[in-house]
């Protein structure tokens, strides 16, 4: 191994674990931070015990559009979510990252009215994250460069938190909206992001060249949080178990990954294996 950058271990999936516990996507899973905080805290604690040093809050869709019609607003949900992560961390030296995903407003073009609405929406998320005492803000699973930059700029103009931006893409580096993940990272760096990378997407057995290209086009800390492969359409099961997942990620360490974790289909076992992988890499240096 030639990896020289210290790796900070992130956590794994939240949503897929909650679905396995019987919760439904028909109701925003983010509301569980308010209604079932013990369940969310338990998942955070399991990741902490597996080795995670940054916990992502259960707030991917905690924005005005997604929460419309519920009895909770953005500030209440994000506040409760940060509280769950803090409760799990206790006295441990762990950071809390507020996760925010795409709202979809700009996926079909940056209309001026929609751009203004999008900017307001992400500003609300950023202000709520700061008010809740989060350590950083992550715009993840971004699919459209215009929306990613809108979110980043709205946050940077409103709060002093560090802001990460990660895209989801296929093995060629193309997002579902046709944006290029590496180009998005370059644009985000110019717009003031504190870290960039790729999350969700395919499994690590298929994403190496897309991640490598992105790593070569930015000087920012690189974030990698991939899914455990693509789920089976019939069963919903993810193909990469913890050991296979970690083994597939080993070559990525030479790309200079700064933050490493898991996305859909990953569990505390996956993070535990990643912790072991990072320790082995450190010994070999």
Task: Tell me the CATH superfamily.
Answer: Homocysteine-binding-like domain
Number of strands: 8
* Percentage of β-strand residues: 5-15%
Count of alpha and pi helical runs: 10
Kindly provide the name of the CATH class: Alpha Beta
- Please provide the ordered H/E string of secondary-structure elements: EHHHEHEHEHEHEHEHEH
Q: Which structural category fits the helices and strands?
A: alpha/beta
The major beta sheet can be summarized as: 8 strands, parallel
Radius of gyration: 17 Å
The CATH architecture term is Alpha-Beta Barrel
Q: What's the arrangement of strands in the largest beta sheet?
A: 1-8-7-6-5-4-3-2
Principal-axes shape call: globular
Instruction: Tell me the count of domains.
Output: 1
Give the uncertain stretches in residue-range form: none
Mean pLDDT: 94
Helical content (DSSP H or I, runs of 4+): 40-55%
CATH topology: TIM Barrel
As an assembly, this protein is single chain
Distance between the termini: 6 Å
């Amino acid at each position: 191994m030639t990896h020289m950058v210290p790796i900070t271990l992130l956590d794994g999936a939240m949503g897929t674990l909650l679905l396995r516990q019987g919760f439904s996507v028909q109701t925003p899973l983010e509301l569980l931070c308010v209604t079932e905080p013990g369940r969310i805290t338990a998942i955070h604690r399991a990741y902490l015990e597996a080795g995670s040093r940054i916990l992502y809050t259960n707030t991917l869709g905690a924005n005005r559009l997604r929460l419309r019609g519920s009895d909770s607003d953005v500030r209440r949900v994000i506040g409760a979510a940060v509280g769950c992560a803090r409760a799990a961390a206790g006295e441990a030296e762990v950071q809390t990252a507020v996760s925010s995903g795409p709202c979809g407003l700009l996926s079909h073009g940056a209309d001026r009215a929609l751009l203004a609405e999008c900017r307001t929406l992400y500003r609300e998320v950023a202000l709520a994250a700061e008010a809740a005492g989060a350590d950083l803000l992550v715009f993840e699973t971004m699919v459209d460069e215009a929306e990613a930059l809108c979110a980043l700029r709205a946050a940077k103009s409103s709060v002093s938190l560090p802001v990460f931006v990660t895209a989801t893409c296929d093995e060629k580096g193309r997002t579902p909206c046709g944006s290029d993940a590496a180009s998005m990272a370059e644009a985000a760096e110019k717009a003031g992001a504190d870290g960039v990378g790729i999350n969700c997407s395919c499994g690590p057995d298929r994403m190496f060249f897309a991640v490598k290209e992105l790593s070569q086009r930015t000087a920012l800390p690189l974030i990698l949080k991939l899914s455990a492969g693509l789920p089976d359409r019939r069963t919903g099961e993810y193909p990469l178990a913890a050991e296979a997942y970690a083994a597939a990620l080993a070559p990525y360490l030479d790309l200079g990954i700064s933050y490493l974790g898991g996305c859909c289909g990953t569990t505390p076992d996956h993070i535990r294996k990643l912790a072991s992988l990072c320790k082995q890499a450190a010994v070999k240096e």
